[in-house]
Amino acid sequence: MKHIFFVSVIGLSAMGLGLEFLRAEEPVAKTPAAQASTAPVFLFLGDSITRAGGYVGQIGAELTKQNPATPPQFINHGRNSETASDLSEAYHPGRRPCVLARLDAELAEAKPNWVVVCYGINDGIYHPFNEKRFAAYQAGIEALIKKVQATGASLILLTPPPYAHSGPVLEGANEAAREELINNANAAAEVEAEKDPNKFGYKTPYPYYDEVMARYAKWLLTLNGRDKVWVIDVRTPMLARIKETHGRDPIHPSSIGHSIMAEAFLQQWLTIEAQSKAK
User: Fold this and answer.
1) Mind listing the pLDDT tens digit for each residue in 164-205?
2) What pTM value is reported for the model?
């Protein structure tokens, strides 16, 4: 069969049908490999929410649809249990991994044009808010920004999704009273955590842990507009449909939750892309 195919190719060429790969004097059309080299590379980093792939896949499908000639390359390297803060609960099975330990290698291997990052849900280690843990998250994100900027890649930070359990209802409290009650509950929980390192964690989260995530997300949004850094708020649209975004698991979004995350990204993508080209 190989002999027959060879003869057929020679025969077609001799008949003047102009097979491109036999005509060295003419430009060769771009091969899939050549097209891939001009397409942007997106590297997604995050915890188990990113690793699940839902929102990543939906973003990838839409951007590929928008760019059929040079579809972007999407690399999902989310990692279960990971943080940017390098913190871990006392009873977590093995210390939580920190993205900073692998970031240099990931950037060197993927050589991305865009890095999309979603951290936060694990970074407070399901404890009440305190400044030390918050500072660890801030320092981790700042270090990540510097490493990405050093490569010349653009960075998109996604706010952490909500922790889909609001804690005991504070009946009849106005906004000011509610804030005071939350602060008191947080202070009391901090005392408990200091007495018992195993008090809080992913199995036994602080009841008002979403208040911690709200603070983390609010700070993250202040980073929007830095050099080649954009921040997309996925928290707010998810809160608007919080009964749909999660099932029984308050940490990991449902398929609807992932769709809302993807929609939030795609709604801002064209603006972000245009801004990146203008810089």
Assistant:
1) 998 887 766 788 888 899 999 999 999 999 999 999 999 999
2) 0.86
CB atoms within 10 A of CB 140: 20
DSSP reduced 3-state for 1: coil
Q: Which helix (H) or strand (E) holds 116?
A: strand 114-118
One-letter amino acid of 72: P
DSSP assignment of 164-186 equals S---S--TT--HHHHHHHHHHHH
Please provide the size of the chain in residues.
279
**Distance between alpha carbon 117 and the CA centroid of its chain, in Å?**
4
With 0-12 / 13-18 / 19 or more C-beta atoms within 10 angstroms meaning exposed / middle / buried, residue 277 is exposed
231 backbone dihedrals φ, ψ, rounded to 5°: -125, 130
DSSP string spanning 14-64? HTT---GGG-TTSPPPPPHHHHHHHS-EEEEEESHHHHT-HHHHHHHHHHH
Handedness of CA 240, 243, 249, 252 (dihedral sign): negative
Q: What is the dihedral of CA 230, 235, 241, 244, to 10 degrees?
A: 100
Band of residue 37 on the pLDDT scale cut at 50, 70, 90: low
Give the Cα separation of 125 and 238 in Å (integer).
21
118, 123, 129, 134: CA torsion to nearest 10: -80
pLDDT single digits (tens) 143-152: 999 999 999 9
CA-closest candidate to residue 182, choices 152, 206, 146: 206
